[in-house]
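Structure first, sequence second, as always.
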């Protein structure tokens, strides 16, 4: 915490006269957070140092931190100190290069696979009735598109019915449609306290309220979700249970069953984001399997083929709900891209998608060996086949995740601060690190060496060097 901020606080206290100093300090912490002068995980002075700096007694400093903690502004860890919880800013579009902020699918440099993809795309267009594809289309996908998507969904959900399937312009676009369909302005959407940033930006854009559900190492807590159902009007539970973004962990079968049980007892719709479903080896049942009458199962090809295709699918609880979802998506997008559907169907039909999935998994696991070898002493979470991991930072080194992520990105490491994913105003000391995209294993090795060197030294040392 800069001395200049403490100096300004002292002037405020001196000018306020009889106004209770402990309340004023809590308000000043709040103002510092709102203005951006105080960021999540910034460390505040010990109470005795605060008292000396502001010329107040120790008990007033203690009451001030107690008041700030009661307002949810700070958190204290025994032996480590007092830190800002703060107000996590809304996710905003970034001006940084695409690779620096997105979890890009691995692009295997296999000439035969590249030719397969090209040939499949070109032959799909060459053999199609091009004028038919260029006309307005019914929303939700053609019969052929739905059948091909049904074959993919069947890998994750038993016996998905075609009449419950709706195609969508990627998972993100599908989520926009579902949130507009399911959530009224006075309702809330329950989300994990660490979640996909896209759902935060969607809610902000649509004026919807997200309710953070406390988590542990196995995902959202069942008791916290049930408390939310008792005390709020919950429109839906949004959950990313498999190879989660950002923590790269999959919720256990028992936790899924318990969360599904709460949803069933309170009749809460579930939006199950299965972005990594095509590349996972996890065999836990999907929510669409556990609670088929409540779950909107949404998936796509961004993490197994390419995000540029902008196509995905939603398995809805009923045929009627599928019609509602198609209506919501139609009002937002008019129609989807039938040419892209033609290409995707051809890649599925000819087995090219499966070849790509196997290549992605092989390369991901090869790169993981590089990561684990270099970062063997670090605390990280990473599942088989994944091309991102969650790195918990050692607290004693004094790193602010946002500052560290910025420094790492400037050196080519794809790092994102925990603040981008937090929904509870209390981001942990952690980063999401991605190693997908077109980079090679050698490039990954270079990135991990940079990462290891930077996080192995105290933050103030790096600041002095720069």
């Amino acid at each position: 915490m800069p001395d200049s901020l403490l100096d300004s606080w002292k002037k405020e206290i001196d000018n306020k006269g009889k106004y209770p100093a402990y309340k004023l300090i809590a308000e000043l912490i709040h103002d510092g957070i709102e203005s951006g002068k105080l960021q999540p995980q910034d460390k505040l002075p010990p109470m005795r140092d605060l008292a000396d700096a502001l010329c107040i007694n120790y008990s007033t400093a203690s009451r001030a931190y107690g008041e700030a903690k009661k307002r949810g502004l700070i958190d204290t860890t025994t032996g480590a100190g007092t830190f800002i919880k703060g107000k996590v800013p809304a996710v905003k579009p970034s001006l940084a290069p695409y690779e620096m902020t997105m979890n890009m699918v691995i692009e295997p440099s296999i000439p035969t696979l590249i030719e397969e993809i090209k040939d499949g795309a070109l032959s799909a267009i060459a053999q199609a009735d091009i004028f038919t594809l260029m006309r307005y289309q019914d929303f939700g996908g053609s019969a052929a598109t739905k059948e091909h998507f049904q074959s993919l969904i069947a890998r994750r959900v038993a016996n998905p019915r075609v009449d419950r399937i709706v195609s969508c312009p990627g998972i993100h676009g599908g989520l926009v449609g579902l949130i507009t369909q399911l959530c009224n302005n006075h309702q809330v959407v329950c989300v994990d306290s660490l979640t996909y940033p896209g759902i935060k930006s969607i809610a902000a854009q649509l004026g919807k309220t997200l309710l953070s559900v406390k988590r542990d190492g196995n995902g959202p807590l069942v008791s916290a979700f049930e408390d939310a159902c008792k005390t709020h009007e919950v429109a839906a539970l949004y959950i990313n249970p498999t190879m989660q973004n950002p923590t790269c962990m999959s919720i256990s079968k028992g936790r899924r069953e318990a969360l599904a049980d709460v949803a069933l007892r309170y009749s809460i719709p579930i939006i199950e984001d299965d972005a990594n479903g095509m590349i996972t080896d996890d065999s836990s049942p999907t929510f669409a399997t556990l609670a088929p009458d409540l779950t909107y199962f949404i998936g796509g090809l961004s993490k197994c083929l390419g995000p540029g295709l902008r196509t995905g699918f939603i398995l809805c609880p009923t045929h009627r709900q599928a019609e509602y979802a198609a209506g919501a998506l139609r009002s937002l997008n008019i129609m989807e891209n039938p040419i892209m559907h033609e290409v995707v169907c051809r890649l599925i039909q000819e087995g090219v998608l499966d070849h790509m999935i196997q290549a992605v998994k092989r390369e991901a696991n090869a790169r993981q060996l590089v990561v684990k070898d270099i970062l063997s002493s670090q605390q990280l979470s990473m599942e088989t086949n994944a091309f991102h991991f969650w790195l918990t930072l050692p607290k004693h080194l004094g790193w602010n995740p946002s500052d560290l992520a910025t420094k790492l990105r400037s050196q080519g490491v794809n790092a994102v601060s925990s603040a981008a994913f937090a929904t509870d105003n209390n981001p942990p000391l952690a980063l999401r690190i991605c190693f997908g995209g077109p980079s090679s294993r050698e490039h990954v090795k270079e990135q991990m060496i940079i990462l290891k060197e930077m996080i192995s030294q105290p933050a103030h040392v790096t600041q002095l060097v720069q």
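Margin note: Confidence is low (pLDDT under 50) at residues 88-100.
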